Amino acid sequence: MIPTKDEAERLLKEAELCNPGPWGNHSRIAAHCAEKIAGACPGLDSEKAYILGLLHDIGRRFGVSHLRHVSDGYTYMMSLGYDEAARICLTHSFNNQSVKEYIGNFDVTHEELELINIELHKVIPDDYDRLIQLCDSLAGSEKILDIEERMGDVKRRYGSYPQEKWDSNIRLKEYFERKAGKNIYDIVEKEAYRL
Asked: Could you tell me the pTM of the whole model?
């Protein structure tokens, strides 16, 4: 279950009041990309993709965090009954379903890390999981970025970027380009889109 588009937008605005920062616009850009790509791919619902993109980082409402935003988002969405949004909060950071590939600090308790591991291993990834992972790798906080540029930015900020995750993001881009029959950057209107 997911919220309506209006409810998702309200949840994001409310979350930004709790913890202002560039993550809100990053979420909006990810949502835009998800909506556009889903609209170009048979079998995907563009409104659902938009909502999931909008809420993927909702755990940031609880403050500045790294890995904790994953467990916070998952727990928060589950508390509201939005299990599909909770799933995306969980899966968006783990292209290969491994916590080891997380880039950033492990600022979680033992119990939170256990929750992430247990729930992550229950997931059989689908195209919405893959789509939001891709869109997270395209969305800056001001504009749509070239995927290599975005990954390079993360590498500069955190000092590393696992090659397996880098390669996985490139494969996701290629996967959705094959499904849509078009270049991802054309689909998401990379050069024209601005918030």
From this structure: 0.96
